[in-house]
Amino acid sequence: MSLPPPDATWYARPPGLPERASVGAVVLRREGGEWHVAVVVEPGEYLQLPKGGLEPGETHEEALHRELREEAGLTAVRLVADLGVLERQNYARTRWQVTRSFLGVTGEVGEPPLEPGFRLEWPPLNAVPRLFWPEQGQLVERVRQNLEGGGYDLT
Q: How far is it, in rounded angstroms, from Cα 109 to Cα 29?
């Protein structure tokens, strides 16, 4: 079964929809002289950036490192920039997702993710396939443009 892609209605907050704090990341890895980005393929072949909700008592950074291990098998990601907040409804339309996004770099390829059925792919930053959530694709493109303009120190 294939889920229909999200449209503009996912980005309008209905009254009374409870909020859920979450985190996500654009994680880059240098390979063969070019940058590659971590893309999580969820069951059903849905391509997304690694992301997930905060658990009670976690900071955004702690939650992100946990989610990177669970969804992408990454354990050594250095966070280099706060990319701001993305907001939308979750796919079930039961929560308003408020996702703080980060830019991270790593030298690792990643271990098998802890989440059943998940896998990690590393497409080149300049050729990322279409991601399920449009705002994630826009975030990756913004990172690519800023990186080309010297906007980040990734050394």
A: 8
The share of the chain scoring above pLDDT 90, in percent, equals: 88
State how far the Cα of 63 lies from the Cα of 20, in Å rounded to an integer.
Answer: 13
For residues 40 and 50, the answer to whether their CB atoms sit within 8 Å is: yes
CA distance linking residue 48 with residue 32, whole number of Å: 23
48, 132 in Cβ contact below 8 A? Answer: yes
Residue 63 burial (10 A CB sphere; 0-12, 13-18, 19+): buried
Would the pTM count as exceeding 0.90?
yes
Which token pair is 29?
């890895």
What is the dihedral sign for C-alpha 18, 20, 26, 29?
negative
| Beta-ladder partners of 26 | 103
Three-state DSSP at 99 gives strand
d(CA 78, CA 92): 32
